[in-house]
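FYI - complex with zinc ion, inputs then prediction.
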Amino acid sequence: MKLVDAHCHLEPRDFPDVDAVLARAAAAGVVQAVVIGQFHGPGDWGVALEVARTRPSLVATLGIHPHEAARARPEDLAELAQLAARPEVVAVGETGLDYYYDRSPRPAQARIFGAQAALAKSLGKPLVVHVRDAHEDCAVLLAAENASQGVIHCFTGDVAAARRYLDLGFHLSLSGVVTYKKTEALAEAVRFAPLERLLVETDSPYLAPVPYRGKKNEPAYVVETARRVAELKGLPLETLAEATTANAARLFGFVLP
Ligand SMILES: [Zn+2]
């Protein structure tokens, strides 16, 4: 069985030994993981690009998270445009809208999100979208930017939200949240969405799936999320793994080993 972790964070403060993490992932069937590169401040884009460069089972993205939107200056966006054009950067993001934490004012979040949607489009690369309590504004913004290629990461919405993103052409990536109790609306959305638009992810180090809930999440655990999604779709785990892996490879443009 081959799995792809479509969204993980592997910053050294959480994972001082990335190779040990990747060895456990490989043992669990994870053939590729998409590591998210994020803006931390002027000139600081984290370690994603560097970590992925020497490891064939990793590909990297680069973007400005909505939490950091207010801190990003025009120069930072210009630097992102340059870095994201590199062939080893497979997607722009994560970017988006977070109205749950509201760590940046909403107009700043929208501005930085819109700029990255336009950048992804101009580069012909997918957009990795983070959205929390903001499905309406998110879908409207994506439509206004003519965005049609990308993924709603850690999708936790209902059928109505899923339908809007799917209609735009987006994929939905499911995290450990789908293994938690009291997520019936999300389960309904998973049953509704076509298999060829689904991905699975850990969002490590956060949101560990059951039975690891509360622990530090890591790419190896994506199998637990895949297991639950397979159950909801009424499919064998192998079939779900094969489909989501092919979907991720197609979306992010990498070749599977
Ligand atoms: Zn993330």
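The CA atoms of residues 17 and 178 lie 28 Å apart. The chain has a mean pLDDT of 97.
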